[in-house]
Amino acid sequence: MTKVTNQIAKYLPSPDRSIKIVCWTFFILWTAGYYLFQRPLILSAYAAYGVSDLTVLCLLLVLCLLPYSLSHRLKLDTAWYSLAFCPSMAILAIVSNEQVGWRTVILTAALLIVWLYLVIRRPRLHLKKINLNLWTLITVAAVTYMAGNTDMLTHYRCRIQSHLANNDYQEALQIGIRTDEADTAVFNLRATAMIRANQLADKMFTFPVPAKTSSIAANSKYSPDIMLCNLLLQKRLNDFVRLLPHYYDISSSTLPQHYKEALIIYMTRTANPQIAYSNTLIEANYVEFIAEKKRYSSPAESKYKCKDLYGNTYFWYYYFH
Predict the structure, then answer these.
(1) Interior/surface letters 128-142, b for 16+ CB within 10 angstroms, e for the rest
(2) What does the alpha-carbon distance between residue 187 and residue 319 come to, in Å, rounded to a whole number?
(3) pLDDT tens per residue across all 321 residues of the chain
(4) What b/e readout covers 111-127, taking b as 16+ CB neighbours within 10 angstroms?
């Protein structure tokens, strides 16, 4: 039995080698995951310098070679082998920022000071070597994650820009579709995608409109829909109704959805309308919306409840935004 155990042991890695394998596995998986998360932001932030996927992959290769070099140059023992990976992780965090802010500077500086202290002193801790290495890597990973730009709207913007550059308009409109958050940059990029896909007047109010937004500043050629949708954003229904017949047959079934909704609001709120318009389905939806709106005594509750049911309509925008 002893001979068999000894034979098996020959083919198993030593404890020190096992620790190194675990450290490398953690580092490579973390680096790959972090890069995939930050890729759109990195490419967008450095596009002006001609940075491409190939450039970034070369950087990742260098960052993978750096721990191997540091572990030998610093003569790190197995207990502190994870220290070799810290500079690479910090560099990747710094790179994944459009502009290096104070948070990134402070976190990176603190990490560097602690790293230098541990490299010089290497205190003896009452922990197993594998646990010490894992806790070090997890802590550094958390700090570098916070040092990078993890803002959700920034990532939405960069990902939408990437899809727009590839003319993937439908893919661009899927980014952040399940969130109610948006800023002016994200709103205008979505508007650009909708304009190029000829869907602005059908989809604009299915996405969140940032506070105080009163016009579209989309990087696209002028179109009547931009002017008409800007009037809807500003809730100028009289001007909208006056100009709409110049560009659309309002009796057509292909009239964009948000224009139909705006016309129904106009017809029900105007004593002497300039036009005649009727749409049984949209009118019924509007009556149900008004009934739902009046069900709640609290304006905040009414806004919240109606958003669940009608948040993708011009009705909700007109009354609650």
Answers:
(1) ebeebbbebbeebbe
(2) 20
(3) 454 444 434 444 567 889 999 999 999 999 999 999 988 888 888 887 888 888 888 999 999 999 989 988 888 888 889 999 999 998 988 888 877 778 888 888 888 888 888 888 877 777 788 889 999 999 999 998 888 888 899 999 999 998 998 899 999 999 988 888 889 999 999 999 999 999 999 999 999 999 888 899 876 677 899 999 999 999 999 999 999 999 999 999 999 999 999 999 999 998 889 999 999 999 999 999 999 999 988 888 988 899 989 999 999 999 998
(4) beeebeebeeeeeeeee
The Cα diameter of the chain in Å comes to 101
Nearest 5°: phi and psi at 112?
Answer: -65, -40
Query: From CA 137, how far away is CA 126, in angstroms rounded?
Result: 17
Q: What is the C-alpha to C-alpha distance for residues 263 and 269, in angstroms, rounded to an integer?
A: 10
Q: Give residue for tokens 């790190």.
A: 76
Using alpha carbons only, give the angle 315, 319, 321 rounded to the nearest 5 degrees.
100
Tokens read off for 150? 């993890």
- Cα separation of 90 and 67, whole Å? 12
CA distance 106 to 14: 39
Token pair of 45 as six digits = 């932030």
Distance CA 245, CA 241 (A): 7
Annotated domain spans of the chain: 2-149, 151-234, 250-321
Q: Do the Cβ atoms of 129 and 19 come closer than 8 Å?
A: yes
How many residues make up the chain in this entry?
Answer: 321
Q: Could you tell me the two tokens for 9?
A: 């042991």
| pTM (2 d.p.) | 0.80
Signed CA dihedral, 170, 175, 179, 185: sign only: negative
Structure tokens at 261: 């909704």
**Tokens for 22?**
């675990």
**Cα 127 from chain centre:** 39
